[in-house]
Amino acid sequence: MGSLSIWHWLIVLLVVVVVFGTKKLGNMGGDIGKAVKGFKDGVRGDDEKPPVPTQVAERTTIDGEAKEKTKF
């Protein structure tokens, strides 16, 4: 038995797509991404997490001068 060529991998990929379907594969990819993010957050620990704002920031206005609109 030698190493697998590109054709072997393409056939395996085709079989996986046929068995699971593209929608289910996309969902699995999203689930794996969420799991990896959760793992990273768990490993990082509570001390290194950025602070989560508890209240929504109040609306503020910005003082400044308005310039004329230019047409592009």
Automatic annotation (TrEMBL):
Residues 60-72 have a biased composition (Basic and acidic residues). It holds the Pfam family TatA_B_E. It is found in: Cell membrane. The keyword Protein transport applies. Keywords: Cell inner membrane, Cell membrane, Membrane, Protein transport, Translocation, Transmembrane, Transmembrane helix, Transport. The Tat system comprises two distinct complexes: a TatABC complex, containing multiple copies of TatA, TatB and TatC subunits, and a separate TatA complex, containing only TatA subunits. Substrates initially bind to the TatABC complex, which probably triggers association of the separate TatA complex to form the active translocon. Part of the twin-arginine translocation (Tat) system that transports large folded proteins containing a characteristic twin-arginine motif in their signal peptide across membranes. TatA could form the protein-conducting channel of the Tat system. This is Sec-independent protein translocase protein TatA. The lineage of its organism: Bacteria, Pseudomonadati, Pseudomonadota, Betaproteobacteria, Burkholderiales.
